[in-house]
Structures are given as C-alpha cells and as structure tokens.
Amino acid sequence: MSSDALKKRKSKVVRSEGGTPEMKRGREAEQQDVRVYNEEVELDSRDPEQDFLQYKESCEGLATIMSEIQELKANGAKEGSAEVEQRRMQGCIHFMNLKKLNRLAHMRLKRGRDQTHDAKQKVDVLHLQLQNLLYEVMHLQKEISKCLEFKSKHEEIDLVSESEFYQEAPDEISRPHLTKNDPHQLTLARLDWELEQRKRLAEKYKECQSTKEKIQKSIEVKKEHLTSLQPGLNAIMQASLPVQEYLAMPFEQAQIQTEVARHLPPALYVLFVQANAYGQACDKNLSVSISGDVDEAKALSKPPEDSQDDESDSDAEEEQEKTKRRRPTTGGQLDDKRKEMLKRHPLSLCLDLKCKDGSILHLHFYYLMNLNITTVKAKVSTSTDLNSAISAGDLLKSDTLLSCLYSSDQGKETPNPANRYQFDKVGIVTFADYVEELGHPYMWVQSLGGLHFPKDSSEGVSVGSSLSASHMENTMKLLRGRLQARLALHKQFASLEHSIIPVSSECQHLFPAKIISRLSRWTTITQQEYMELPYTRHVSDAGLAKESDLYFISVVERGTARLQAALVLSPRYPEISPLFSLSLSWKGERTGRTDDNLRAMESEINVFKNELQGPRPGHQLLTNQISRLCVCLDVYLETEGQDDSVEGPLEFPREKMCLRTVRGPNRLKPFKYNHPQGFFSHR
Fold first, then answer.
1. Contact 174, 189 (CB under 8 A)
2. 188 and 290, same structural domain?
3. Is the pLDDT of residue 211 over 60?
4. Residue 183: φ, ψ to 5°
5. Domain shared by 445 and 519, yes or no
6. Which among 42, 107, 293, 344 has most CB atoms closer than 10 A?
7. Between the CA of residue 28 and those of 23, 51, 94, what are the distances in Å?
8. 216 and 280: one domain?
9. pTM for the complete prediction?
10. Is-contact 512 406, C-beta < 8 A?
11. Considering only CA atoms, which of 573, 644, 131 is closest in space to residue 395?
12. Would 278 be classed as within a structural domain?
C-alpha cells in the first residue's frame, strides 16, 4: 500500500473516531458545561441543510468502510482482526449518527405538522368569523330590502290629485307653506282631507238610506193597491176571451206562453224569442208553441233546500243502508249515468211551418241539459194521403228530411267538443246511436238557439240572440224549400212507380212530341247495392255517393233494348241535381266506360242539367232528366246502323230528324234537341 493511501486511511480513521484531539477536547469541555442534554434544544440550534450534508457524508463514509472491510477480507484478513474491528467501530459510529439524524428529521416533521395544525385552526376560526359576518350582511340586506319594499296602507287609497287637493281643501288642512316643500307633510295633509271627505259621504249615505226607506214604503203601498186590482183584471180578461177569439187576437194565450217561456233553457228561449219576432215581422204562417211539464221546469230553476227535518234525515239514512246492502252492478250504474247525461229539459219548443198547399212541417226542439246542445225532430202533415209511393218512403222520414240542409250537416254527431270527454266516462261510443230517440243535433239548430261552439277549445261556449237572428230567415226559407221539394218528389215517385213520367206544361218544349222509349221500372236501392253495380264504380271512387244520399234504379225499354240507369239523389235536391250512371243491354252489355255514345248520354243528362231545370225552383228536374234519357235512347237506337240483310220491317225505324247521324272519329250521335225546329244536332 502506498504512503498516500495510508495517509488517507488515517485521516478517515481520525474523522470516524470523532475528529482531531482538539475537537475531542472541545466536546468534553461542552459536556462538562451542559449537564442536561435536550434534543429539542439542540434541534433549534441545528441547521437542516447541514444535517442533510452530514447525512450524506455519513452514508458515504459507511459505504467506504464497507468496501474497505470487503477488500481486507478479500486480501485474506481474518474475522476479528484489529483492522476489521477498527473499521466496524467506525461503521457503528456512522450508524449512530444516522439514527440521530433520523430522530431529528422525525422531530422536525412532527413540529411542522403541529405548526400546520395550529395554522389550520387559526384559518378555521377566521373562516367562521367570515361566515358570521356574511350572514350578518345578508340579514341586513334583507332588512334593507324589506324597508325599501314596504308599502303603507295609505298607498292603497286612491287620493285626489295634488292640484285638486290644493283647490278644494281648506287652508287649515292643506297648509301650502308647509306641504309644498315637504312630501311627508303633503301626504299627511292629503290623508286628512280624504278622511274629511269620507265623513261627509257617510253622512250623505245615511240621508240617502232614509230617503230610500221612505220610497220603498210608498212602493209597497202601491204594490198592495195593484195586487187588489188583480182579481178584477182577471175577471175582465176572462170575459174578453170570446172577443179575442172572434178577432183572432189571443192576448191571453200569448201572455200564458210568455210566462211559461221564462222557464225555458237559454238556448230554447233565444229560439222562442227570435222565431216569434220573425213570425210577426216576416212570416205569418210560422207559429210557435211550448210543450212539456212546467212544474218540473220550475223545480229545476229553484235552488235546493239546505234545511231538512229529522225525519227526512232518518229516511235518507235508511235509504243509504238499503243501497249499501244491495250494491248495483257496474252495467246498471253506467246505464243510469248515460240516462242522466242524455236527459232532456222538461220543456220543448214546437215550430209549425205552413206552406201554401196546406202541408205543415212540425219541428220539435229539445235541449239536452248536461250536453248543452239542442236537437230537433221533424214531422210532416199534409191534406192529402201520401202513402201511395213505395219508393218515396224515406223522403219524409225524420232521419232524412232535414239532412244536409246546410252543406255536410248530417246531424249524426254532437257539435260540442266537450261531449266527447263526457261520452268516454259513461261508455258512449257515438251519439248517432241515440239520435232516433233524442233528435238530430244539426249545426243550424245550434245557431238558431244562439249556441256557438268554436273549434279552439280555449274559447268558451257562447249563447247569443244575434247569432240566432242572423240564421233565422235563411233557415226558415231553406226549411220551407226542403219541404216543398220533398212533397214534389213524393208526387213524382208515385207516377214513376206506375211507369208514368210526369212532364209539366212549362217543360213540354224541352222534348219532341213523340217519345217511343218508355219507363218500365222505378225502384229504390241501398247504398251498398248501388256500389256493387259495375257501371257505378267511377261515381263511388270519386266520392260522390255519400251515406246521406238516396239511391234509385230506373229501367227504360224500347223493343229489345233495355237501358238501366242508377242515380244518386242528394238530400239538397234540386240545388244539387241527381247523378245518372247508364248501362245498355242490347247486342251485348254496354256502359259509359266502354261506349262513347253512352258517355255522351250521361253528359247530356248530368252536365247539361240547366236546360232541364224548368220553372223555378226546379222541382221538375228529376222527371225532365228521365224524359231526356228516353229521348236519348230513341236517338241512340234510331241512328244505330241496321242490318240490311234481314228481311222485314226495321226494329227501330228512324222517326227523329237529325242533321247528321254521327260525327267525328268517335262516331258520336246527335243528342241535343233544338226547339222549336224539332231536329237533333251535335253539341
């Protein structure tokens, strides 16, 4: 080993043993001076960075000693030799120094944690103080806002304006020298003036009250006098009844009817007033009457009695016990609820509309209280017997007589949107099931009663007499026109069933003098039977065959040719003309879809209907169309090419005068009749 290495090892040994002799002597002197050792005191005097450097030096020294021991053992030194033991002692000193430094580090960590805990406690205390201060601030702000939002009772009083106050109030109350510069004093003065005015008004009220009592007493005296006159007036009215009947001035009956009308529901009352007014002003043949149980109507208008005696209470309890014993079934409950919901008002209104021919249209109007709608039933009475025509059986029925008086108004469903929710509660699927019993709720019936059902559910149901007045005149005209049209159809059907086509003298010029084709059959059919016919499919597909329409079959014959016509008759006839569909059986089956001339015949009857209207209002349109159909069949057969090879007379000799028998590539025939020349031409 070199000398330099030995010197270094000696220096390390000196450091490991505690330093130089001078250092040892210094430490011994310090130990003698400090008799009690305290690590916490030493901790305050030590520098953490110096301890960290000392920790690194001890670790390096310990590593060096370990490597030296390893070298000695590698060079053959034995266990327990002096050099090895010396280095072990130095290593133990370094271990002890590390343990001391570890304790000091833990003490510093504990002191730091204690300081951190103390600081956190101080922060928490300060945070609590801050929260208390914020709460106090919020409380003060609330109090301030309350004070700002405070409204005094005097603000609710409608005081007179300042100009009026200074003009009317006396100086001892207004005090202008003080109140004009001080708003508070001004408010107090205005309140004093308000109090003074109210005192004056209270005195005036007492005076008016005493005057009212005096007047009321005089009214009662006059009432007693008038009541004593009532028996005498009644006797006079009874004595004047024969005179009223002779002069056709039924004042007594009108008075009784007016008294009963007070108990009508609002919708029927509006209809009663407007119908009476219209009858007196415009239509003397319109009469109005009220029928029903007046006592029951009065009971409905009376409020229910609150007080009941003990006997009635006990009876009600016994009744309740009985109902508890026998519980009704669900079906029975629903039936009772339906009957209650569909209950009619005990009073009804009857309008009799008389026509010139002596026929009368009876309209009975009913009010359904829970549904808030008005319904009507119709009946016709005539001076002659109308049972001869079988096909006219549906013309005067209540279900079809008033159908579609206005466009698309069939009267099958209720017009009140709220009824749909009421029906769901009691299991009513559709109102149409009860129409026969309750009547039809047409829209025009609601309008006559002043009922208006808006489409927007946010608006309420309104009752107004102006709405009834605006519809009254037009509706009465439509009703009279409908009755006359149905009676005219009834007479025409009676003739058609006997194969007679009635043509009035005003319409004779529309047809030639000689018509060979004849009507052989006229009968009514159902809508389903009409739609099953192959030659009416185009009408059904176009939506022109509706449930409210009437359907008929007519057969026109001439020789071996047989023309079948299916027609749709609208309830609004003659405003909407009948619609014909044709099928010809002659040398095969021909329809308007396969034969252009049959299509032209349909056009001649359906499209050019204005030529067949006749005198207004056009009640002869149907029979004129059937007559034109017979004429067109004659032209069709006479202008058809004949087989010259067959001997004998022609089946359909030409008797109509035609300018041209056919025209155009479609070989159309001349179906237009020209009067007064009497020939047929193309359109």
1. yes
2. no
3. yes
4. -60, -35
5. no
6. 344
7. 9, 21, 20
8. no
9. 0.60
10. no
11. 573
12. yes
